[in-house]
Amino acid sequence: MRKPKILLIYTGGTIGMIEDPKTGVLKAFDFQHLNDQIPELGRIAAELTAVSLDEPIDSSDMNPLIWARIAKQIFNCYTNFDGFVILHGSDTMAYSASALSFMIQGLQKPIIFTGSQLPIGTIRTDGKENLITAIEIAATLDKNGLPLISEVAIYFEYTLFRGNRTTKISAHNFDAFASPNFQPLAKAGVTIQYNTSNFFQSSFSDLHLSTKMDDRVALLKIFPGFSPLVYESLFDVKKVKGIVLETFGAGNGPRNSDFFDVLEKYIAEGGVVVNVTQCFSGAVDQGKYANSTIFNKLGVLSGKDITTEAAITKLMYLLGNSNSVSGVKEDFTRCLVGELSTI
Ligand code: ASP
What are the chain's domains? Predict the structure, then answer.
């Protein structure tokens, strides 16, 4: 049986850091010497190639240009590998996994993000297990010898999640991620149990790359007492093309005529507004309560059960790739890559 070929792409984050024994300062280690840090990698049944961003970053510095670089790198060597593992800081991993899921569509191979809460060189690190199992999953082939997973996923603390359904929930716990509205793709115990009925299968027969992202999007989380006038400058379609509105519960907002006026004007001028819930789980159901029916009338789009991370990156992707506002709106409410439930 041939060994699957896996490309590891190190972007930065805690996982690739080691502590300087003298100063205690965390610094990125040379990824060409990965085996020195994790000798166990030599025993994995996969052929590993490791590359690193020229300058590894804290994932707080992640942005659409770096997403584009990673997406192009995978696209350009797609046929040479069976799977891809991206080592990434956990802070913005859910955004990057969502962004990549829109940028590279038609995947027949896995792109698995992983990282850790403790640096790989520390004795209690969670990084070794995360990396080793992420590689093992990326290298798993089905009975036809084809990659088992064919989507962008996040592996963290014994669980494989669909990337664009995931959100970071803890700055402290090893189980730092959750996918509140979508069951995990796999659970790793003594064996790895795959939930194959949840796997995403693209309807595209070949790989599509589109790295254009329009960053003129905004995120507005409402709260009791929120004054729409404070945010008036945001509703300027010349500067902001789309707004993700984080509302209460099943998509409710305050009945405030100033708020309705700015929304109405912004949407009439060509702005796109998407309604997502602030709740950890559940979906927007516009029209269920009187406090959300107005959103339907104004043309606010329901984000259903999409995460904020997926909503922002989907909006960036659609605004970057569609020629018309109506096209963006139509595509936003459709499920493109498993990011939202349609029922
Ligand atoms: N600040 C780090 C990052 O996101 C934390 C981590 O690696 O988990 O890059």
Answer: 5-209 (3.40.50.1170), 217-332 (3.40.50.40)
Residue nearest to atom 6 of ligand 1 (CA): 89
Q: What are phi and psi of 220, to 5 degrees?
A: -125, 115
Distance CA 274, CA 258 (A): 18
The CA-CA-CA angle for residues 28, 31, 33, to 5°, reads 115
Mean pLDDT of 199-222: 96
* Dihedral angle, C-alpha 145, 193, 45, 175, nearest 10 °: 130
Residue minimizing CA distance to atom 8 of ligand 1: 90
- Percentage above 90 pLDDT, the chain: 84
Please give the distance, rounded to the nearest whole angstrom, from the Cα atom of residue 37 to the centre of ligand 1.
19
> Would you state the pLDDT for residue 343?
65
Nearest to 110 by CA among 177, 40, 162: 162
Question: Residue 211 catalytic?
Answer: no
Residues 6+ apart with CB under 8 A from 62: 11, 88, 89, 92, 95, 96
- The reported pTM is 0.96
Cα of 304 from ligand 1 centre, angstroms: 29
